Amino acid sequence: xxxxxxxxxxxxxxxxxxxxxxxxxxxxxxxxxxxxxxxxxxxxxxxxxxxxxxxxxxxxxxxxxxxxxxxxxxxxxxxxxxxxxxxxxxxxxxxxxxxxxxxxxxxxxxxxxxxxxxxxxxxxxxxxxxxxxxxxxxxxxxxxxxxxxxxxxxxxxxxxxxxxxxx
Length: 167
Known about the structure:
mainly alpha, 0% strand
């Protein structure tokens, strides 16, 4: 659940980055912009959301293949080790693309300011507290939705009762 929340937070942040800056660069980002973007991602520890991508995909592929090839279980297990070793490190491609997305969503100056901010005590606090705040907000929204759904259900029943129909 916590990992899913972190994934959603990062995905939301990435979406916000893509949509949020009217001054965003449209050309290929500079090396400096990419560097600042990578600093931001490192400060936010974004790599934790995709660090297990390769082993996870190898395992998922092996499991799918096993479903229709049960007689090859031993072979598929051995092959999965080979494939995992061959593709180890490929998850870094995700980090590179995320950095490129950040670097094109903001100007170089904005990226520099963000990198500086996330290294500051307040920036570190934002990084630490954002997941906590989002989790509490999600819990509130879940409770609110439950209560509101009950209220709506009651209203439906009352309106149907006015029509002489019990539901």
